[in-house]
Amino acid sequence: MSALICGSLAFDTITVFPGRFKEQILPEQLHILNVSFFVPTLRREYGGCAGNIAYNLNLLGGSAVVMAALGNDGADYLERLKSWGCSTTQVRTVENSYTAQAFIITDTDNNQITAFHPGAMSEAHLTAVPASSDLKVGIIAPDGRDAMIQHAAQLFAAGIPFVFDPGQGLPMFNGDELNHFVSMATWVTVNDYEARMLSERTGKSLEALSRSHLKGVIVTLAADGCEVWEQGVLTHVPGVKATEVLDPTGCGDAFRGALLYGLERGWTLERCVSLGNRVGAIKIASRGGQNHQLDRAALGL
After folding, report:
1. At a CB cut-off of 8 Å and minimum separation 6, what does 39 contact?
2. Catalytic site residue from 134, 165, 253, 295
């Protein structure tokens, strides 16, 4: 059985600012903000939520079907996905566009500022969720707005349980739209900042959301682990100390790859997120979203 991963494929240009954003930005001057950050290091990595999630799911031994769009510069990324044994039958190539690009600045506190060019991702909605009995679970990760709306509806219509993971795409949707996503999803996962925005826009607390048809609401708390809400009951799953903190890029996607791995196998939600915490701690000790390795035996798999 496979997991359908709906989201972005992108190239990440990652830079590091050897200081703190908060020391360079004057709160009382935000209305005339004009700042420049000196970034002595620069790397270009394979990224995008769908690619990163699939990478981690593959490392864990899961089966991924990626549904995303690449531009005319994406041939090597397509071959990379195939080299993992990942299904690329649902990856669309858009010849008149570049692959999505993310430009990321990380400071010494691991805060990030990102500029994102959607490129080919804007046509991701033109690919429909396939009719396949082999799909065990799906995820709606950040993608083009139309793609997220249509793919969620298609997964729901096909009876495929899915995780709603709006991520940085959450601000694109109003309260009614977010409530509609939640009504179709089986699980919701957000970070702590996104959780507050989701509650504000839907008018519902996390506890209230979890008392609905949802099987769980997951809130990631970085090094502090996760909160798992199930039918109004809150469980805190402790974080895992990283051996080294080098780059937070892709940590959330690493967590979600592990989450899908567990959901594919019918694990309890607490067990799924516990594995996610461990995989996220391994990823943060490596630069880029797709350069770390996982020891399945050490993870008890």
Report:
1. 15, 16, 17, 105
2. 253
